[in-house]
Amino acid sequence: MSGVAEVGVDIVELARIRSIYDRFGQTFMKKILTAAEMAQCLSRPDPVASLAGRFAAKEAVSKALGTGIAKGLGWRSIEVLNNEAGKPCVSIHVPNFSGSISLSISHDRHSAVAMALYEPL
Predict the structure, then answer these.
(1) 110 tagged catalytic
(2) What is the pLDDT of residues 31-75, one digit of tens each?
(3) Number of domains in the chain
């Protein structure tokens, strides 16, 4: 796979994520988000929409990497933070990761969608 760009896409229903959040609260967030991600989500007017976007983003990244959330790549191994301009940026926290990932996230009242492009070095 070296040198070949890969794409991953995921979409989630906000109602599904909201239902899980309503049931488990920040325990659910702590399972899939880093502390920095949680802080960004909780600072938003609708933290659940931000949480859903990050959930979709992590799934999209794992698909672009070809692993899914498994094989040493956990939920918190993928960190999605917004830069000063609001653009989502991805950091991968696993040994020997190389390459770059571009990410786009969007949501409306019903769904959150993310697309990731992985370009290996």
Answers:
(1) no
(2) 999 999 999 999 999 999 999 999 999 999 999 999 888 878 999
(3) 1
Considering 63, 71, 87, 93, which one is annotated as catalytic? 63
Question: What pTM was estimated for this model as a whole?
Answer: 0.93
Report the percent of the chain where pLDDT is more than 90: 88
Structural domain of 87: 6-119
CB 32 within 8 A of CB 74: no
Instruction: State the angle between helix axes of 47-65 and 14-24 in degrees (0 to 180), rounded to the nearest 10.
Output: 110
DSSP line for 92-118: E-STT--SEEEEEEEE-SSEEEEEEEE
Distance of CA 119 to the CA centre of its chain: 17
- Say if 1 falls within a structural domain: no
Q: What region does 40 belong to: left with phi over 0, alpha with psi -120 to 50, or beta?
A: alpha
Coil, strand or helix at 109: coil
From the candidates 31, 58, 107, 110, which is the catalytic residue?
107
Distance CA 87, CA 31 (A): 23
